[in-house]
Amino acid sequence: MNKSESKLLTIIIITKNEETYIYETMASVLNAIKEMDRVEIILVDSCSTDKTIEISRHFPISIYQLRPEWRHTPAAGRYIGFRQAKGDYVLFLDGDSVLQHGFIEMALECFQNDSSLAAVLGKRIEFQHDSNLNIMNKIQTDFTQIGEVPKFVHFTKGTTIFRSSYLRAAGSFNPFLFSEEEAELSERLRNCKYRILAIPKPMIFHHALPRETFSTFFKRMQSNLHLGSGQIMRYFISIDFFKTSLFQRVKRDFQFTILLLSGFIFSVTSVMLFDLKPFLFYLMILFSIGILHLIKSKNLSSTLKFFAFGFLHAYSMILGFSMRPRAISEYPIDPVKIQ
Questions:
Q1: Element (H, E) at 128
Q2: Best CA proximity match to 170, nearest among 193, 196, 154, 152
Q3: Rounded Cα distance, 133 and 13, in Å
Q4: How far is CA 51 from CA 20, 25, 257, in A?
Q5: Which CATH code is given to the segment(s) 3-213?
Q6: For 58-100, how does the pLDDT look when each residue is reduced to its tens digit (9 = 90+)?
Q7: pLDDT tens-digit profile of 221-239?
Q8: Which DSSP string do the residues of 36-58 spell out, in sequence order?
């Protein structure tokens, strides 16, 4: 890369049918960098079928699109975008997020003061919407649980700014992961002895559907966004994996997977022995877990959701684990250049 082509910062926006929010996202980015030089903006789209591209064309940005036959994941958009990036630092942003003014400057200052930093993230405030995209609730709490002082954390988030050289050294995002790509990358960054810093500065407003509702869950399932926990289990499977922070992140899914597989084993045993005792023993285990959760939550609906979501996550983990791991280098690197 020629020195004249280099940039201080690359902002990569990933989109998939974001016509509702992309104008607000782009406006927030331009406002955040209006006093900065040597900044480029790259949008990577996953074959949107709405007006996302049409709206984005009105802004001074580069636009790339994943080819239809490729695997489309959020990680793939980040991976392809980073391959085009010329910035010393790179900020990844989802197309439904509003970048907050001042975060970039504070993050860059942190990088300059600490050469061990690979990534910096800030606070995220969520706007929860109903199915008609009406705002239901603005969560003012510290959603990212950063607090009021900077602290080192185990994982990056969907919106994070990276030191490009360290991200490249760690191998970039794995485009084949349907989800948990940030956690998987964070594990590789830590293995390289790099650190991740969370700062008490508003980073984004994020438009989101309510969490832990069946409609949201099944919408994510349709996009394969629950397969990531099983995929990373397959990538990192070893005795040492169970000692990592990455395992702690997927521990609940793993526990329910064991519970689900145990149910299958007990059921088969009962059928083969013509004896209900093994299956009844399994039901007693479920009942005991349910009672403990009910005592803790004091809410029957919460306990029922605990089991429903738990087993659905377990099913997704099994599907993800069954997928053959693929090397990052296998992903194609010739996206469609739109602008």
A1: strand 117-129
A2: 193
A3: 21
A4: 9, 14, 40
A5: 3.90.550.10
A6: 999 999 999 999 999 999 999 999 999 999 999 999 999 999 9
A7: 778 888 999 999 999 887 6
A8: -SSEEEEEEES--SSSHHHHHTT
Residue with tokens 């009021």: 148
Rounded Cα distance, 159 and 156, in Å: 8
Q: Supply φ then ψ for residue 251, to 5 degrees.
A: -60, -45
Give CA–CA dist 23/31, Å, rounded. Answer: 12
Per DSSP bridges, beta strands 87-94 and 117-129 are: unpaired
Q: What's the token pair of residue 108?
A: 């860059």
What CA–CA distance (Å, rounded) separates 279 from 299?
Answer: 27
Note whether 338 and 53 are within 8 A (CB): yes
d(C-alpha 32, C-alpha 104), whole Å: 8
Contacts of 298 (CB under 8 A, 6+ apart): none
Q: How many CB atoms lie within 10 A of CB 91?
A: 27
Are 212 and 309 in contact by the 8 Å Cβ rule? The answer is yes
- Of these ranges, 115-119, 135-139, 223-227, the one predicted with the greatest mean pLDDT is 115-119
**pTM (2 decimals)?**
0.89
pLDDT band at 3 (very low <50, low <70, confident <90, very high): very low
All CATH 3.90.550.10 domain ranges of the chain, comma separated, are: 3-213
Residue 129 has a pLDDT of 62
Can you state the angle between helices 245-273 and 228-236, rounded to 10 degrees? 100
Number of other residues whose CB lies within 10 A of the CB of residue 289 = 16
Count of CB atoms situated within 10 Å of the CB of 32? 21
pLDDT tens digit sequence for 161-191: 999 999 999 999 999 999 999 999 999 999 9
Residues β-bridged to residue 152: 197
Query: SS3 of 284, please?
Result: helix
Report which residue type is found at 294.
L
- Among the listed residues 91, 88, 198, the one whose alpha carbon sits nearest the alpha carbon of residue 142: 198
